[in-house]
């Protein structure tokens, strides 16, 4: 793997740190020396950190105890234990498991200036530092990465006008419409109260009971049960602000807005079978994937786009544009690309950065505002509040959270206050005009002046009552293989519900979306098979819902993991040529052999210092790679064929429709192993999306099409 490390060093040194990274360096212990001395937290050098202060007798005096009591007076021992006792802080009540990285945001054109006065979205001369945290929702901090769940996509923009947070998800809609339902929803999806089961899963009675009785969640359930619920990588997910925000331009005109991040690598998923296995094989799969990519210079990148609706058109749609269970179909509200987001730096230390980063939907900057979306209104209260219990009142002073622009207020005191303000004034108004409010013209935040009329009541608007149109639109827009995955996923989840009331009621919900879907699930889980549709399917479809709409323009294997299976007697010259071709298109190759050591090339190939395997066959699994390459070499192929682990590796990869490249004897081995002699292994039609291939591992995704054809291209080049 040394070549990855080399390119990582190059990539990291080529980066100019953003202003936020420079700001963090104020608090970073710089240049820890290899032989740095140990001190207490009050700075005194420590002479012994291995033995608590005790009474120990002398060996020569039999009257004295050989190992006496430990003394409370040991201030060094006490400090060590005190610090340790309080290391944990409350984990996030949702989204506890996550990982983050630094990067920047840049405006790529000035289209947004007609909608907003916010320079972060309009000034193309700026590079705005960002910190992004990706997360799962249900599981606790130690849960696995590849569970079926929504992924959080939270972005903190450190703008010169203050911090702006988009606290989004990888799915454009949400389970509920009104914030007051959030505690119920979260209680229902989290481990059940009587036994604290299950972890990192929604496959249990309480979740399905709740969503069955709360049909507004039907749309979001469809997304989570689709392949979107098991992303291949955080780098291959879309990000959505979900809630409707507003933009205010210099002329004081207001537009409603939705925020979108679109990944450069396309939107790709794991298969459910892979995801389940990776949960055990490498629970840190996603967080490692992110840091490996950044460290190797394959910086994850997203286009940033907005959808806008002028204030005057708010009521022109057949859904309420303030309802977070609905997206805005691109056919009626096109996307406008205005910028790009790039992640280019891993954190130096997880806790002070990724764990202590704290987002608030209420943190907006002038030119960006809220809407009356009832979910957003509740969120605007909740996030600040939760940070107080998680991090303390002064959480915004923590290095990762503090803005890069000046901060001055009359807010004072509270636990763990860091900032020292040298002034006798801490109130407004004051005789010295210190901490004075600033007008809108001078950059102060001014709310949009809106005229409102209504009756105070506990209710929702009339268009909030419709729950199935977009769930159906989403289902109709999926490719056949995506629909098949969705049926399997719901089938899996409902099979884990042992209360028939729960799965029967959900079959009714599904029947309001699509008759065939409801029947297919009912048959799988042994529920009552509906005899007529709950409501008709209008057959409408929309763009941007199927993952196939997000294949990169050119097939790419950049940053994909390729396993090269070798054993003694393999063709090292050929392997080297293929590996060079693969790495030149930025794939990441790993040599997997019978031992993590020298592997002997075929006779006559002099290979300098030799070829060393990065891993041995038992230490990795096919699920952790995107593709396989089997070089030629008679002796090596015979060894592979005798190794059950390798045979399983290849069959499993084939079953998951991974791209498999083989040369010479490698091809014969491949044909034998997959027992499909007639299959044209490199036919480009395989996995193109039109054909549904069923293997022993389930219905195959076409998500890897781009890799399949790119590997074929590489072999052609070689
Ligand atoms: Fe959150 N959510 N949420 N949420 N949420 C939290 O804040 C909440 C919602 C989202 O990486 C909490 O700092 C309410 C929608 C992300 O640190 C908490 C409601 C969306 C993260 C909270 C919602 C999200 C959170 C827990 C309904 C997608 C992780 C810890 C009204 C747009 C941020 C914390 C990170 C975290 C409350 C609904 C996304 C308790 C009350 C909709 C990505 O404040």
TrEMBL record:
Q: Top-down, what is the taxonomic lineage of the species of origin?
A: Eukaryota, Fungi, Dikarya, Basidiomycota, Agaricomycotina
**Entry's family note:** Belongs to the catalase family.
Gene Ontology molecular functions: catalase activity; heme binding; metal ion binding
Q: Which Pfam families match?
A: Catalase (PF00199), Catalase-rel (PF06628), Catalase_C (PF18011)
Keywords from the named record: Heme, Hydrogen peroxide, Iron, Metal-binding, Oxidoreductase, Peroxidase
Q: Where is the Catalase core domain?
A: 39-436
- For this entry, the protein name equals Catalase
Sorted alphabetically, which InterPro entries does this protein's record hold? Catalase, Catalase_AS, Catalase_clade2, Catalase_clade2_helical, Catalase_core, Catalase_haem_BS, Catalase_immune_responsive, Catalase_large_C
Cofactor list: heme
UniProt entry tagged with the keyword Metal-binding: yes
